């Protein structure tokens, strides 16, 4: 058990370092031109792959990326602290108002489509949940796994924190804006949700499709399997767009080149490789 705990802690530390660390390649910092990206952890795998490929032909461009949540990325863009805000939700009206007051001319770019999938511990016998059952689990109406065909055990609810675009989409699409259970374990990233669920046989969480891995079991929703085809067609019931927001007044040079790269053929291929659905 101690070894497992140490391994889990190390994995979480590595994930945190990957998310928060800046990614710099090429020549020295003094010679490089900077692009600063902040925001959604869901969009992070796409961004990381794109940076690596983009720098092969643009070695003098230093691109830093920080996965601190959609809300934090949008806030940083409004305050002028980043060039691109990654977001897994649409900007709110009040955020647009703040941007306008700060003389920001916001441009919205859809870079990919995503599915949010419920995940449970590998030992969980439940295979499918309806949208109504998911709502009941997360608002506290359903408290035991036996109520949805599982064992007679309490359900441990794992959720993203309120600064997350994934949380906001789940809050609207699944919970219909009702409150999540007050005893939910709130996590700061998709990776943290995976860790929490993988280490608790009674837990349920939700993650972006690009974060699905063998450590957790994916459930179907309304008996629909979360596949790329079902996500693209809209058949899977919890699907969404992924965004990059920029200030059009500063949308030039390397910032525009990087965004154009992601929307191009090579960038959209990387979207697929990261486990998401390309726009084109």
Which descriptors apply to this entry?
280 residues, alpha/beta, D-Maltodextrin-Binding Protein, domain 2, 2 domains, two-stranded parallel sheet, 23% strand, globular
Structure, described:
The protein is 37% helix and 23% strand. The chain has 2 domains: 2-113 and 241-278, Periplasmic binding protein-like II (D-Maltodextrin-Binding Protein, domain 2), CATH 3.40.190; 115-233, D-Maltodextrin-Binding Protein, domain 2 (3-Layer(aba) Sandwich), CATH 3.40.190. The protein has helices at 2-20, 44-57, 70-78, 93-101, 131-139, 165-173, 190-198, 228-233, 253-263, 265-273; strands at residues 33-39, 61-67, 84-87, 106-120, 128-129, 156-160, 185-187, 203-208, 217-218, 220-221, 239-247, 277-278. The protein contains 10 helices and 12 strands. The protein is an alpha/beta fold and 280 residues long.
Give me a quick take on this structure.
The chain is of the alpha/beta class. It has ten helices and twelve strands.
